Amino acid sequence: MLNSTVPNWLASLLIMILIGAVWSDIQRHRIPNILSLGGIILGIAAHTWMNGASGLLTGIGGATVGMGIFLPFYLGQGMGAGDVKLMGAAGAFLGPEYALLATGLSLGSGGVLAIVILASRGGLKPLATRYLSTIKCLSVTGKLSYIPPAPGEVATIKFPYAIAIGIGTLATLWWITKL
Hints:
- The chain contains 6 helices and no strands.
- It is an all-alpha fold.
- Helix 3 packs parallel to helix 6 and helix 4 crosses helix 6.
- The chain is elongated and about 60 Å long.
């Protein structure tokens, strides 16, 4: 048993959802609602079944933490709605405390994956040039000015963020087993 919050059978269901989401995101660059929204409902229902009203709050709290932290990235067009919902599903299974950890680890994993993709496709130099120009503008004018990537620049390429969510969530499940 992982712990009282995430028993093995619940962790197994979450892992199956993550595998399906990663596969779909790699193949189609989409995460089906049956996995993300279905995962949210299943996570909340499982916690409610196990612990009644407090379980309901655990599931809703976890989903809210996961989606709430990812929502600004979606609003800034840095990730898709499916990524936000998938993080909500992971949160619903994990509960709020572990959803916070999984979300942080997913964001960190996503940053590392983005750098690896940029480096492997020659996109680090243009990225550095744009950010150095932003810093120069700030130091000269005192105003922050974001310079977006040029069309076709490597930094504009989308990558399957479900991979990062999977890594962050699996790392969290591993952490839970160590407690």
